């Protein structure tokens, strides 16, 4: 999730259990603690571009690390607040703020290793977009009102709003998934793999993918409690299986090891980018929710398989036509 949302959710929980005397300090401690887990982004390598994929949302985002992360955050805050709060009170607020981070991240589609080191599985509940102003702006207003008015009640309203929004996302996800399975059934497809997640900034238009035989089918699905689901069909694209598609692949090479790491991160949704034939893309994310063009991928280089792959971003440009298409989807209109 974006840093502002992480900090705000980190603020609102400590606020909700504090008192009027401490509510502002609880908000500050919670906000800073809610940001701390994402310091794992500094774990990078100039020679191994995929290293950050291995460690982002790994140990700093696990349940077992919450008391440790809270301790680090509390130690920093104590340096400035030791004359105003006891260390254990600071630690209490810091643990609450830090703990919200991993739970909010697991609600997105990126994947979070919540149970590391006992499991390396990346959990993704897919019930909120990585950036969602409909979640962030109301939460920001409620946190600020709680701070300025020293209102515990307002803070609790903010916490209830955040939980309710995330629960609504779960409901919308299931509605979109049901519509996707119904669509696959009408096409007489088996839907061996299924994924739905909200498109950027909303819980109404969902990017959906299912696998049938050797192809992925991508479409956008608009779901609303007040109307029937609306399908915006995309296209299909062939599943990329490196062991099959790359004839000269060395299974003992660094290159193949990197492909397997990227494959795990992408949860098997690998394709060859339609505009860049030398790129293996992660189909989960696209600039439009019904696009088969991945946002990022790794290069295919069979000439030197003892070197790490390179990774790059694609399809980041947003022109007026794409914006208009996305707005039409949000409003439930037919596309031209």
What would a concise description of this structure say?
The chain is of the alpha+beta class and 336 residues long. It has helices spanning 3-16, 23-36, 51-55, 66-81, 87-106, 133-149, 152-186, 242-245, 254-265, 320-331, and strands at 193-198, 205-212, 215-224, 227-238, 270-272, 279-282, 296-299, 311-313.
Give a structural overview.
The chain has 336 residues and is of the alpha+beta class. The protein has two domains: 3-125, no CATH class; 171-336, no CATH class. Helix content is 44%, strand content 15%. It contains ten helices and eight strands. The chain has helices at 3-16, 23-36, 51-55, 66-81, 87-106, 133-149, 152-186, 242-245, 254-265, 320-331; strands at 193-198, 205-212, 215-224, 227-238, 270-272, 279-282, 296-299, 311-313. The strands form two sheets. The chain has a four-stranded antiparallel beta sheet, with helices on one face. Helix 1 (3-16) packs across helix 5 (87-106) and helix 1 (3-16) crosses helix 7 (152-186). 43% of the residues are buried. The mean pLDDT is 95.
Main attributes of the structure:
single chain, 336 residues, alpha+beta, 2 domains, 4-stranded antiparallel beta sheet, 44% helix, 15% strand
Mean pLDDT: 95
**SS-based structural class?**
alpha+beta
Beta-strand share of residues: 5-15%
* Shape, principal axes of CA atoms: globular
In percent, how helical is the residue content? 40-55%
**Helix count from the secondary structure assignment:** 10
* Count of strand segments: 8
| Largest sheet entry | 4 strands, antiparallel
Order of helices and strands: HHHHHHHEEEEHHEEEEH
**Strand order in the sheet with the most strands:** 1-2-3-4
Catalogue the unreliable spans.
none
Give the total of domains: 2
Query: Over all CA atoms, what is the radius of gyration?
Result: 22 Å
Distance between the termini: 33 Å
């Amino acid at each position: 999730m974006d840093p502002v949302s992480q900090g705000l959710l980190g603020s609102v929980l400590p606020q909700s259990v504090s008192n009027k005397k401490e509510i502002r300090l609880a908000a500050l401690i919670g906000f800073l603690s809610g940001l701390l887990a994402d310091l794992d982004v500094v774990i990078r390598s100039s020679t191994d571009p995929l290293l950050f994929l291995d460690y982002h949302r790994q140990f700093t985002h696990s349940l077992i690390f919450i008391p440790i992360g809270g301790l680090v955050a509390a130690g920093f805050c104590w340096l400035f607040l030791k004359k105003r709060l006891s260390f254990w009170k600071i630690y209490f607020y810091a643990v609450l703020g830090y703990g919200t981070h991993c739970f909010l991240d697991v609600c997105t589609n990126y994947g979070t290793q919540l149970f590391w080191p006992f499991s390396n599985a990346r959990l993704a509940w897919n019930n909120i977009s990585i950036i969602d102003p409909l979640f962030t702006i109301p939460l920001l207003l409620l946190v600020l009102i709680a701070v300025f008015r020293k209102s515990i009640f307002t803070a609790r309203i903010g916490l209830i709003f955040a939980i309710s929004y995330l629960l609504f996302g779960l409901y919308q996800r299931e509605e979109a998934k049901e519509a996707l399975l119904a669509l696959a059934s009408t096409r007489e497809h088996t839907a061996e793999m299924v994924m739905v997640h909200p498109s950027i900034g909303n819980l109404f238009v969902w990017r959906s993918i299912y696998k049938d035989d050797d192809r992925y089918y991508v479409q956008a699905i608009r779901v609303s409690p007040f109307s029937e689901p609306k399908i915006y069909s995309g296209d299909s694209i062939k599943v990329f299986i490196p062991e099959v598609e790359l004839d000269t692949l060395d299974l003992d090479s660094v290159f193949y090891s990197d492909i397997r790491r990227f494959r795990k991160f992408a949860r098997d949704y690998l394709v060859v980018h339609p505009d860049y034939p030398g790129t293996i893309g992660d189909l989960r994310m696209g600039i439009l929710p019904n696009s088969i063009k991945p946002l990022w991928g790794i290069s295919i280089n069979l000439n030197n398989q003892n070197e790490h792959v390179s990774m790059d971003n694609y399809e980041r440009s947003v022109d007026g036509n794409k914006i208009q298409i996305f707005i039409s989807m949000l409003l439930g209109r037919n596309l031209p």
